[in-house]
Design brief:
- The protein is built from three helices and five strands; from the N terminus they run ααβββββα.
- It is of the alpha+beta class and about 90 residues long.
- The strands form two sheets. It has a three-stranded antiparallel sheet. A two-stranded antiparallel sheet has the order 3-4.
- It starts with a helix and ends with a helix.
Length: about 90
Amino acid sequence: MLTKDLITEIAAQTGMTKRRTEELLNATTNVVVENLLQGKSVQLQGLGALEIKEKSARIVVHPRTGERTEVPAKQQLVLRPTAGIKELLNGTK
């Protein structure tokens, strides 16, 4: 789903204008990004928790050549879904 499609769906469900919905979505995105960059976890009710995890550096081996290469450490955005979402995805609900 593209952002414009998301805005259209939210506007239709809330009765808000598309312009106001876009402003709200942009503000929400900005707040979420700011908090993640500060090292805080962001809880989205009914969806899950967004957080930044540190992936440590590691050595990988090319399967054909056997060449060893170091992959540097990096930060990764992770979504930890709620139990309800997990159940829906696994078909247990």
